[in-house]
Write a structure and sequence with these properties.
Largest sheet: 5 strands, parallel
Number of helices: 5
CATH superfamily: Rhodanese-like domain
Distance between the termini: 31 Å
Strand order of the largest sheet: 1-5-4-2-3
CATH architecture: 3-Layer(aba) Sandwich
Length: 104
């Protein structure tokens, strides 16, 4: 799969969140302390270190999932791990929460 198919840019995510937020599942793979400081509304916290153990219990493999972290590195690692579990509709927020906030 091409890298470009694994990412979602901030404007596209903003549009989805404004028009049809229920169409995606937001997953924050940062640590609880980071999540407590700032997060995207409606996102589910599953720290990267817990993701593989919790994914099949807490995420729908048929859902469109957008994974985010602070800058986009951990979320790409998360996507690679989730793909090994059979998840296919995955995208990483390009630039992470920092890019999202910088665009405000």
């Amino acid at each position: 799969m091409e890298y470009s198919n694994l990412i979602i840019d901030v404007p596209t995510l903003r549009k989805i969140l404004a028009e049809n937020p229920a169409s995606i599942t937001l997953v924050d793979v940062r640590e609880p302390e980071e999540h407590a400081e700032d997060r995207l509304e409606g996102g589910k916290l599953i720290p990267l270190g817990d993701l593989m153990a919790r994914a099949n219990l807490e995420l729908d493999p048929d859902a469109d999932i957008v994974v985010y972290c602070a800058h986009g590195v951990r979320s790409m690692h998360a996507i690679m791990g989730l793909r090994t579990l059979g998840f296919e509709k995955l995208r990483s927020l390009e630039g992470g929460l920092c890019a999202y906030r910088e665009s405000e």
